[in-house]
Specification:
This protein folds into 2 domains: 38 residues; 76 residues, DNA polymerase, domain 1 (Orthogonal Bundle), CATH 1.10.150. The protein is built from 7 helices and 2 strands; from the N terminus they run ααβααααβα. Strands 1-2 form a two-stranded parallel ribbon. The protein is 62% helix and 3% strand. The protein is mostly helical.
Length: 140
C-alpha cells in the first residue's frame, strides 16, 4: 500500500516546486519592471521607418542589374562591397552559369553575395543550352 503512494507524492512535490519557482520568477521580474513593460513605439517613428524602407526599395529598383558575365571592372566596383580585388576575381572566373556560382566557386563570400544578389545577373551568351554548356566545359 505504501509503495503506491510514493509516485503520487513525488509528482505532487515536483508540481509544487515548479509552481513555487514560477511564482518566484514572476515576482522578481515584476519588481524590476522589465517583463511587464512594453517598449512604446510612436506611430510617427513607424511611419518614418516605412517611408525610409520604401525610399531604399525605390533606389534599388532604379539600379540596372549588372551582368557578371560581361561587366567591366568599373561597373562591378559600383556594386556595394566590391573592390578592385573582387572585381578582378569575378572577371577572371568568367563565364558563370548563374550568379550563385560566385559563392560556389569561392569568388566572393556568402555575406557579400547576399548584399548584391538583387543587383546582379548572369546572362548567358547563347539561347542554346548546349552551346553554353560547351563554353563552361572548355573553361574547366
Amino acid at each position: 500500500m505504501k509503495l503506491s503512494h510514493i509516485p503520487v507524492a513525488l509528482t505532487a512535490a515536483v508540481l509544487l516546486l515548479s509552481a513555487s519557482l514560477t511564482f518566484a520568477t514572476e515576482n522578481i521580474i515584476d519588481e524590476t519592471g522589465d517583463a511587464g513593460s512594453k517598449p512604446k513605439v510612436s506611430k510617427k517613428s513607424t511611419a518614418a521607418r516605412k517611408s525610409e524602407i520604401a525610399a531604399q526599395r525605390a533606389e534599388v529598383a532604379k539600379i540596372k542589374p549588372v551582368d557578371i558575365n560581361s561587366a567591366t571592372s568599373e561597373e562591378l566596383k559600383k556594386l556595394p562591397g566590391i573592390g578592385d580585388a573582387e572585381a578582378a576575381k569575378i572577371i577572371a572566373g568568367r563565364p558563370y552559369g548563374s550568379k550563385a556560382w560566385l559563392v560556389t566557386k569561392n569568388i566572393i563570400d556568402g555575406g557579400l553575395f547576399e548584399g548584391i544578389k538583387r543587383l546582379i545577373i548572369a546572362r548567358q551568351p547563347f539561347k542554346d543550352a548546349a552551346k553554353n554548356a560547351a563554353i563552361y566545359e572548355k573553361k574547366k
